[in-house]
Amino acid sequence: MLRTSVLRLVGRTGASRLSVLEDFGPRYYSSGSLGARDDARDARAYFTTPIFYVNAAPHIGHLYSALLADALCRHRRLRGPSTAATRFSTGTDEHGLKIQQAAATAGLTPTELCDRVSEHFQQLFQEAGISCTDFIRTTEARHRVAVQHFWGVLKSRGLLYKGVYEGWYCASDECFLPEAKVTRQPGPLGDSFPVSLESGHPVSWTKEENYIFRLSQFREPLQRWLRSNPQAITPEPFHHVVLQWLDEELPDLSVSRRSSHLHWGIPVPGDDSQTIYVWLDALVNYLTVIGYPNAEFKSWWPATSHIIGKDILKFHAIYWPAFLLGAGMSPPQRIYVHSHWTVCGQKMSKSLGNVVDPRTCLNRYTVDGFRYFLLRQGVPNWDCDYYDEKVVKLLNSELADALGGLLNRCTAKRINPSETYPAFCTTCFPSEPGLVGPSVRAQAEDYVLVSSVATLPKQVADHYDNFQIYKALEAVSSCVRQTNGFVQRHAPWKLNWESPVDAPWLGTVLHVALECLRVFGTLLQPVTPSLADKLLSRLGVSASERNLGELYFLPRFYGHPCPFEGRRLGPETGLLFPRLDQSRTWLVKAHRT
Ligand code: ME8
């Protein structure tokens, strides 16, 4: 057999302090208007994760994708009621050869395997606080209707034809591979077998008559779409990669398999001898969720943000937009791409026995703790390595010590005996820096802190928009450090409430620190919802005061009334985040030998 051609189709074929502050007044208002910023333009938003294969239990990589989508969606909802029209879908991908084979290996029917593993995903996402509005399973009847309708549209537009496909197929990755992407791996008996160069999964040679999609027609439309939408694929390096792929040949794509070979899937309408290719089936899930083919889907499409791992970029950035364009629809608005988690430097895999179970991690580190860890440490642009010491170290230092310690310092009865939000004294902390006078107590660094926290909501929003959530958390963490520095500098525990000289300044120090904490709590809601709730409740911030649209930081500094001043703090409910005991939380040690 000639194996040089991959796809053969036969047939029909540092400003000064003053300038920082000059800049700062208006920002006070702009942070308030964050919610209204682009209401009219994109009031609806639809976030999706990949739908996950049910051949194995979920791992931390799957949870990471869902958390990224969850944080984006929660941040979006926080912008205010006018942007509350969000949808967020996740689900399980249940058809295809991979599932058919996994069920046979497990001695189960495909339906039994799908029910069992899909349930694991649903439980995990519920435990992890994934605020999805939809969970789709591709074995649902509504999905079959959507896929068959979509197929019919492609067919009616002349984009499907019958031809013979001959080439490599990787069942694990459910994809066709060109010869250049296949290599040989030595087998246990000195023989060798062909595997995918990228994933290392075995491939097999396939030759059969299939339906073929005229993908090659879409090279230029895809290039035009990407060139005129430079933010379509974020972060930028992935956008660039896709454009590079499009410079290469784009052969037509086989979009069905013989039913005798693949029975576990959706039949081609009008031709039961063929089953629809699992990737075409899976991608249409994004339409099924929003009601396709009923017209209602149009109010959500294409206001869509797909969150995906880099392993499935080609399917989402080339095949999917081409299918959509072929069906007369727009490509999705944004595709957010992230890299992978490795474990102690190795790829996570069942055969290496190093798969990290996310449910165990949620139990050990708490839901908020583990959410914070994955989102704070996960960097979309490159792979991140997981090991337990890293989790314990990060959570103890940033959540328990820095943030929890700060809250404790400002609310402890010893320092804040009235348990209120004390008054801010404008003579101790005048809005103009550099003033001198007997009662002026604020120092230059204090103005820097105020400026940093005032600009934080906008900075965080920009990081979310660029899909750099870890940078948003880094910025929050840096402000928490600055606020601790502020408290340390002015040592409120050395000031005396009884002294008429100390009292206004003591109140001001606590007021500023509590205002900073209120901003941190508000901004942390998308990442650590329960911890943020605990923090904001302790500060006495009501549910209606937690939106980004309401986030007027330190209004007294600008001569505006502060609704919190004089308000009683909420009840004390214990440590914000109890320190973790390193020795009791090890799952995966670094440098395991
Ligand atoms: O590809 N680190 O499903 P899948 C981070 N069903 N994320 C990871 C990861 C890791 N080590 N491993 C997996 C499929 N992921 C198809 C998708 S969508 C229409 C069909 C995440 O179960 C990441 O999001 O193999 C990756 O893209 C996805 O899980 C693949 O999940």
Automatic annotation (TrEMBL):
InterPro entries linked: Anticodon_Met, Met-tRNA_synth, Met-tRNA_synth_2, Methionyl/Leucyl_tRNA_Synth, MetRS_core, Rossmann-like_a/b/a_fold, tRNAsynth_Ia_anticodon-bd
UniProt GO cellular component terms: mitochondrial matrix
Compartment annotation: Mitochondrion matrix
Ranges in coiled-coil conformation: none
Catalytic activity as recorded in UniProt: tRNA(Met) + L-methionine + ATP = L-methionyl-tRNA(Met) + AMP + diphosphate
Protein name per its UniProtKB record: Methionine--tRNA ligase, mitochondrial
Boundaries of every Methionyl/Leucyl tRNA synthetase domain copy: 46-410
Ranges where the Methionyl-tRNA synthetase anticodon-binding domain occurs: 445-542
Family that this chain belongs to: Belongs to the class-I aminoacyl-tRNA synthetase family.
Keywords, comma-separated and alphabetical: Aminoacyl-tRNA synthetase, ATP-binding, Ligase, Mitochondrion, Nucleotide-binding, Protein biosynthesis, Transit peptide
GO terms assigned for molecular function: ATP binding; methionine-tRNA ligase activity
Main location: mitochondrion
Gene Ontology biological process: methionyl-tRNA aminoacylation
EC number: 6.1.1.10
